[in-house]
Specification:
Largest sheet: none
Radius of gyration: 19 Å
Shape: elongated
Strand content: under 5%
Order of helices and strands: HHHHHHHHH
Helix content: 55-70%
Oligomer: single chain
Length: about 230
Amino acid sequence: MSTQAAAPTRREQILKEAARLFAERGFHGVGVDEIGAAVGISGPGLYRHFPGKEAMLAELLVGISGRLLTGGKRRAAEGEGAGHTPAEVLDSLIEGHIDFALDDRPLIILHDRELDRLRDTDRKLVRSLQRQYVELWVEVVREVYPRLAEAEARACVHAVFGLLNSTPHLGRPGALPGRAATAALLRRLALGAFGGAHGADGAASEAARRGHLPAVAGGEPGPVEAGQDL
């Protein structure tokens, strides 16, 4: 069986280039002709795939919110089916979100800058998908750290999202460590944040001794940006 990934469709190519250009120059700074040129078709040819830029933006932001939720549910279900501990499921959720934060940075920028440009129905759908994604994490976090109250766990999840979603602000891609090193750093920071929120310096180490979590070096994490939805 071939393991080669399927080539992106023309629609996927358009969305990828639209996300890149919108993130670099802003939604109003990019024309349909420029998006078309980036994928090798005429601007009017884009209308065979999308009715306009607004539809591209909506599909990008609704799409990534849906993919995060679907991916999170899949990881949780696979972990449960394989008999993984809640901490192992949390680690898998962190890994999945790190992949998003490193590989889809233009979408993080778009969410921060352009979410309010969506129609009310699309914006409400984005928010609904994001709330479900947050609650999926909250449930797992509270299984790992049962002493956390629900509101504390939810605030912690938002804070960790803010930390992981800071990748567009970490510097130019060439100035960062390699992808694997950056992913490992973000994972340690996320685990450290959850362990620190548990309320005791030794919480993460205690969990590691029980075989639930890898030990995380260092004391309590520094401040992170809370309140982001992605």
